[in-house]
Amino acid sequence: QVQLVESGGGSVQAGGSLRLSCATSGRAFSNRVMAWFRQAPGKEREFVAGISGSGASTHYSDSAKGRFTISRDNAKNTVYVQMNSLKPEDTAVYYCAARRSLWVDITTTPGGFDYWGQGTAVTVSS
Description:
Number of helices: 0
Order of helices and strands: EEEEEEEEEEE
Shape: globular
Number of strands: 11
């Protein structure tokens, strides 16, 4: 079983930055694709960024590209997303997710992920 715990959310003004962290427990973290999703009120959960087990491969949504950076520290079983130049439309609950299968590709669909954290709220004011 894999458990995920997010932290780092909060309120920030437009143009500001936040770094979210996701601490995980369970085996084989370094072989597991991880991702960040977000869900704004009244909207569907959407992919933000994903990273391969080794960290060598990353993928971003169009809205995150150039502003967000996903990374991982396999020694600490933790994945991060650094969010810069935040906009009010980035306001959402951000979720960390992990795939059950090992050594698979990054996917952008929520259904491709088997383990989820409880979420951390990010509010960006104008």
